[in-house]
Specification:
alpha/beta; Aspartate Aminotransferase, domain 1; Aspartate Aminotransferase, domain 2; four-stranded mixed sheet; 17 strands; binds pyridoxal-5'-phosphate
């Protein structure tokens, strides 16, 4: 079947929650994808910041195949080797000493929200998150998400989620009440347009948490696992959270999420308080172990830093060449955005579409920023190809 046939069939069977590119992907390798018509793409989307080691990375594929031939699932009523090893690796390389395994970002955040409430004790349940944030699509995580458009039609939402204006610690402090138990934020907002939180802002949030005895929860579902240039974004920011959530790149494509915290906080979760049938499933966890071992190998982040600087420079230079359409570039690591002007925003969706037609995959985050989230292994040659195509497309709108 070709792309058009897959599209027709797909549109007749799926609930319409996505507007999809008109392509059925059939194969991936590194930063490249191929569709059912045999067309090749350079992938600057990576399955929404998931396939960070590239498609079908041999170490990950091998680990998955080996584990699938040994043991696929037993539930969390037993210990398994891959899950234990993954938790150990996460602990050795972070502030945390306890891990809860989930299957997705929203689930990891649900665990964090429930833990923050139960560990803070009765009467303390409010969680303050930031406007423009994205935390997932379950009822609680959508309530935590600071974008009203995601709430519409789903009211009444769970109680106790308060949104503070972005970038204003004084406004945030005014929202703290005796019922507040935690502040939840992404160190860099991915979905709403690659918006980094300034270090001073994050430090102010940390000190508000310390002053008012609140837990600081970092949603590193998108920023974590190497995306921003270190294993976790918090490691570059001089601010350590009390709880951190991960998912997206943790399994390089297999669904897995995790909530990390410290023992004193974790002890409020006991048998029966929270659970997951699949969380940390051996096959997904084996993928996670392969991901972490690959990223923690010598030279991985040094090489990433060089290519990230290169990409950032090329994006800044692109913004300078097309001032009517783009005002600058921002982001960290391989979570980068070209910020569009009002005029550029009008063409944003079309720019993405034209790049797709030329065989380059990107997206339009928050309807204002062209977001580039390629596999972390993307080469400077591949970055050049993208910049050339992007320049041609921008030129056609100038
Ligand atoms: C993608 C994302 C989520 C939701 O993860 P799912 O796996 O889709 O549930 C939560 N928080 C952030 C910051 C994300 O980028």
């Amino acid at each position: 079947m070709n792309n058009a046939e897959w599209k027709e069939k797909g549109d007749s069977v799926f609930v319409g929650t996505y507007s999809r590119f008109p392509a059925a992907m059939v194969k991936g390798e590194g930063c490249r994808l191929w569709d059912a018509d045999g067309k090749e793409y350079l992938d600057f989307l990576a399955g929404i910041a998931v396939c960070s080691l590239g498609h079908c990375h041999p170490a990950v594929t091998e680990a998955i195949c080996a584990q699938a031939g040994k043991l696929m699932h037993v539930s969390n009523l037993f210990y398994t080797e891959p899950q234990t090893e993954l938790a150990e690796l996460l602990i050795e390389n972070s502030f945390a000493d306890r891990v809860f395994m989930a299957n997705s970002g929203a689930e990891a955040n649900e665990a964090a929200i429930k833990l923050a409430r139960i560990t803070s004790g009765s009467g303390r349940y409010e969680i303050i998150s930031l406007s423009g944030s994205f935390h997932g699509r379950t009822l609680a995580t959508v309530a935590a998400t600071g974008q009203p458009k995601f709430h519409e039609g789903f009211e009444p939402l769970p109680e106790g989620f308060i949104h503070a204006p972005f970038g204003d610690p004084a406004a945030l402090e005014k929202l703290i009440t005796p019922a507040t138990c935690a502040i939840l934020c992404e160190p860099l907002q991915g979905e709403s347009g690659v918006r980094p939180l300034q270090e001073e802002y994050l430090k102010a949030i940390r000190s508000l948490c310390d002053q008012h005895d609140l837990l600081l929860i970092f949603d590193e579902v998108q920023t974590g696992i190497g995306r921003t240039g270190s294993l976790f974004a918090y490691q570059q920011l001089g601010v350590t959270p009390d709880i951190m959530t991960l998912a997206k790149a943790l399994g390089n494509g297999l669904p897995i999420g995790a909530m990390l915290t410290r023992r004193e906080i974790a002890k409020a979760f006991v048998p029966g308080t929270h659970a997951s049938t699949f969380g940390g499933n051996p096959v997904a966890a084996a993928a996670g172990v392969a991901v972490l071992r690959t990223m923690l190998a010598d030279g991985f982040f040094a090489s990433l830093a060089e290519r990230s600087d290169y990409f950032m420079n090329r994006l800044e230079e692109t913004a300078t060449r097309f001032p009517a359409l783009a005002s600058g570039a921002r982001g960290r690591g391989m979570l980068l955005g070209l910020v569009l002007t009002e005029q550029g925003i009008e063409h944003g969706q079309e720019i993405v579409q034209q790049l797709f037609e030329r065989g380059f995959l990107i997206n339009f985050a928050g309807m204002r920023v062209l977001r580039f989230i390629p596999p972390l292994i993307v080469s400077t040659e591949e970055i050049d190809l993208l910049i050339d195509a992007l320049s041609e497309v921008l030129l056609s709108f100038s």
